[in-house]
């Protein structure tokens, strides 16, 4: 045991436990002799000493220059005793490399979104530090990106292996060859692997290409350029990278000498959201660009990654496409930009989007950045995006990897990688099941939320309709009251003009006619408005009846159409995973043995059958149960929504109609006020003229040529008094109507200001924008 322990003045390490092996070194886990701290010790092999001394020294020199969280930290350069060979002592990164992470079954189709973003941001930060120090790495690849895990469980990625690194200015070139085939810039590949184009020089841009390949690998779990037969098929590899079109990001040859499958997009099995893909893909296309005129500069690259990494993800669920969206908003993006991000992924125009968060409508079109007011949303509580138009996307099942064919024969060498492939696909199936369950749950939430919204709206409409109806019937009775007073007054004055009472300065007949005109025009105009109001009101009442159906909108909704947590699909997948894991382990062991005995071979055969069965069970579970039921749930949603969206639409139209009725009612009241005022003016002047009329005496009677009897005298006085009384009555009746109208106006003003307040109450951003208006924007 002790023979494996080596040491330097400050450190010891056990050579029986290598952390990894490279072309030029072995790396071991070691400890600080004084503190016991864990370290990684890089011990160089004989091959490394064949390099020129200046090259050997470079790795130490480069590492000494660097100090960054995303670059492995150099702790010491010491001499191993007794050999006196130099060793590099570094911080110990606990979780292997990015390559190891991608080799895990759950990451075989690429990293999950958050982890990918960490790789992108952190590796870029490390490279930026290199560029700031004018250093080119020349061997960037997942195997040279170490991973540690912080106390909060988050990964930290660090660039390592500076054996190929050197100082190089932006516009300088170099001649020597470094790197790993699959990650090599096509020009380097041509010279290093194909041994062509001798003497060709390269620039710092070769790191950008390697970064492109590394990020593609991290996003998809596969290399972007894959000739049939792999690494050995060098000519095709070079053809793919050198001849690809500019924005192509992958080229795969599936058969010997067969055509290349080019793609400008990340594959459907990639786990990244559509929102992130749309940001990453153009960046990858630029990195994987051979043409120096079209590729990006380091500065462009840093800016782009900075832009992606600094965005905030907002999660949204769109039931009409059965999809969970991730919207990457910039810090300053306002609501219209967020809506645009939704449009980009759903094709729903901004004006047709009804957005809801926690059951509350998100109505605002304000210029404030969404980050300042949008509540925290998570994939579990996303923004719900309803399409105001009953349009639906086709149901698309989540993409899963394809289980490979499993030949019945025992092939110990290839059965292990075959089982690993099945195991990786099984994980992608589990991910798909998880997504489906999440979408099912969100679908049920969406139906509940939309139904509540409709219920709320219909109650609100019922309330304002009640208000409007009361207002209309009041206005009608005031109108009748006012015009009957006017009529009475005109009749009284006419009667007076027929008598011989002549109030001084008052043309009684003229006044009577004037009142008659006010009565006729006022009554005609007001009756017109009132009739129009009432016909609109009738329409509104029947619309309200339809909307009230919405109060039970979700009555027929059955959440159990889709698979439910109680079906335990995820748990079933976990059981399949653990069973398959055992098969993978046993195949790995079988492969490590030289030969299988009869018994082992028999077991291997059983296991291979089991592997096949497990694949079939998983496929059946996802296809026949989860996907099938999710598509049924989606169909049910379409039916539900087509029905309720009409109710919502009627609500919007009724809303507009009610506003219209309010306006007309206000106009009616204004007209009534005008007629009332005119009538009151007449009343007042008549009253004052009549008040100045001389009391009736016996002498005057004959002068006026009346019949002169006592009874007729009494009748004249009585007539005058009667007219005075009548006018007094009209006056008080007019005052009453005016007071009622004033009250009605202030009530209406209060009501409409109440509505305004409702709109402005929470925040400007939650303002109600009628659908018609939103569309017009
Ligand atoms: N600081 C560290 N902490 C943990 N593991 C490490 C550390 N440094 C290196 N390793 C492991 O050792 C392996 C080899 O390290 P490194 O890439 O530096 O060696 P190399 O000989 O330069 O390799 P290459 O063939 O890429 O030139 C790494 O892939 C990793 O698995």
UniProtKB/TrEMBL annotation:
Binding site for ATP: 42
Entry's localization field: Cytoplasm
Domain of life assignment: Eukaryota
Matching Pfam families: Pkinase, TBK1_CCD1
Entry's Gene Ontology molecular function annotations: kinase activity
InterPro entries hit by this protein: IKK, Kinase-like_dom_sf, Prot_kinase_dom, Protein_kinase_ATP_BS, TBK1_CC1, Ubiquitin-like_dom
UniProt keyword annotations, A-Z: ATP-binding, Cytoplasm, Kinase, Nucleotide-binding, Serine/threonine-protein kinase, Transferase
Region (Disordered): 696-715, 752-777
Protein kinase domain: residues covered: 13-303
Coiled-coil regions, chain positions: none
UniProt entry tagged with the keyword Translocase: no
Limits of the Ubiquitin-like domain: 325-373
Record bears the keyword Kinase: yes
Family annotation (SUPFAM superfamilies): Protein kinase-like (PK-like) (SSF56112)
PANTHER family xrefs: FI05319P (PTHR22969:SF15), IKB KINASE (PTHR22969)
Protein name: Serine/threonine-protein kinase TBK1
Protein encoded by which gene: LOC101853683
């Amino acid at each position: 045991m002790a023979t494996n322990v080596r040491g330097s003045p400050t450190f010891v390490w056990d050579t029986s436990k290598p952390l990894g092996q490279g072309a030029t070194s072995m790396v071991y886990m070691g400890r600080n002799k004084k503190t016991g701290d864990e370290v990684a010790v890089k011990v160089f092999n004989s091959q490394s000493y064949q390099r020129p001394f200046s090259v050997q020294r470079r790795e130490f020199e480069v590492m000494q220059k660097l100090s960054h969280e995303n670059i492995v930290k150099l702790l010491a350069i010491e001499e191993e005793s007794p050999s006196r060979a130099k060793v590099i002592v570094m911080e110990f990164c606990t979780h292997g490399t990015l390559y190891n992470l991608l080799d895990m079954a759950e990451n075989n189709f690429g990293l999950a979104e958050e982890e990918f973003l960490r790789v992108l941001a952190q590796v870029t930060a490390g490279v930026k530090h290199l560029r700031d120090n004018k250093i080119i790495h020349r061997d960037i690849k997942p195997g040279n990106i170490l991973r540690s895990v912080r106390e909060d469980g988050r990964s930290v990625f660090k660039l390592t292996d500076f054996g190929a690194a050197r100082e190089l200015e932006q516009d300088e070139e170099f001649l020597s060859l470094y790197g790993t085939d699959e990650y090599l810039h096509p020009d380097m590949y041509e010279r290093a692997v194909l041994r062509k184009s001798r003497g060709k020089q390269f620039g710092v841009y070769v790191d950008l290409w390697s970064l492109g390949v590394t990020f593609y690998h991290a996003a998809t779990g596969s290399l972007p350029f894959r000739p049939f037969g792999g690494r050995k098929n060098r000519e095709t590899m070079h053809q793919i990278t050198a001849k690809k079109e500019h924005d192509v990001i992958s080229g795969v040859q599936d058969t010997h000498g067969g055509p290349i499958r080019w793609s400008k997009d990340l594959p459907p099995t990639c786990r990244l959201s559509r929102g992130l893909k749309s940001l990453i893909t153009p960046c990858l296309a630029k990195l994987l660009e051979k043409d120096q005129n079209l590729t990006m500069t380091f500065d462009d690259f840093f800016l782009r990654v900075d832009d992606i990494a600094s965005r905030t993800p907002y999660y949204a669920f769109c039931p009409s496409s059965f999809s969970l969206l991730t919207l990457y908003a910039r810090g300053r993006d306002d609501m219209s930009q967020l809506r645009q991000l939704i449009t980009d992924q759903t094709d729903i125009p901004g004006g047709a989007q009804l957005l809801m968060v926690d059951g509350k409508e998100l109505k605002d079109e304000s210029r404030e950045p969404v980050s300042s007011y949008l509540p925290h949303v998570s994939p579990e509580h996303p923004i719900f995006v309803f399409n105001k138009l009953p349009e639906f996307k086709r149901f698309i099942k989540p993409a899963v990897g394809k289980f490979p064919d499993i030949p019945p024969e025992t092939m110990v060498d290839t059965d292990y990688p075959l089982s690993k492939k099945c195991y990786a696909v099984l994980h992608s199936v589990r991910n798909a099941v998880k997504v489906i369950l999440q979408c099912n749950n969100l679908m049920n939430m969406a139906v509940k939320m939309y139904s509540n919204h409709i219920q709320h709206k219909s109650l609100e409409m019922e309330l304002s309709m009640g208000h409007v109806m009361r207002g209309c019937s009041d206005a009608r009775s005031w109108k009748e009251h006012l015009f009957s007073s006017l009529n009475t007054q005109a009749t009284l004055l006419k009667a007076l003009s027929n008598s011989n009472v002549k109030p001084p300065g008052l043309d009684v007949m003229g006044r009577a006619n004037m009142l008659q005109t006010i009565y006729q025009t006022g009554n005609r105009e007001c009756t017109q408005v009132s009739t129009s109001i009432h016909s609109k009101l009738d329409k509104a009442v029947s619309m309200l009846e339809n909307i009230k159906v919405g109060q039970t909108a979700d009555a027929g909704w059955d959440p159990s159409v889709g698979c439910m947590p109680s079906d335990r699909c995820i748990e079933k997948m976990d059981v399949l995973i653990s069973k398959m894991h055992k098969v993978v382990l046993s195949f790995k062991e079988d492969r490590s043995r030289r030969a299988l005995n009869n018994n082992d071979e028999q077991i291997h055969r059983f296991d291979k059958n089991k592997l096949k069965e497990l694949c079939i069970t998983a496929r059946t579970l996802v296809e026949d149960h989860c996907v099938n039921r999710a598509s049924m749930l989606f169909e049910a949603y379409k039916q539900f929504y087509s029905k309720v969206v009409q109710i919502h639409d009627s609500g919007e139209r009724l809303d507009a109609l009610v506003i219209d009725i309010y306006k007309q009612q206000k106009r009616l009241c204004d007209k009534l006020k005008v007629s009332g005022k005119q009538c009151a003016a007449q009343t007042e002047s008549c009253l004052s003229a009549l008040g100045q009329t001389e009391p009736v005496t016996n002498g005057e009677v004959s002068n006026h040529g009346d019949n002169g009897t006592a009874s007729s005298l009494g009748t004249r006085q009585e007539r005058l008094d009667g007219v005075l009384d009548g006018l007094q009555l009209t006056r008080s009746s007019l005052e009453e109507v005016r007071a009622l109208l004033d009250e009605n106006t202030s009530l209406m003003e209060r009501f409409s200001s109440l509505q305004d307040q409702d709109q402005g109450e929470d925040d400007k951003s939650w303002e109600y924008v009628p659908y018609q208006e939103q569309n017009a924007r």
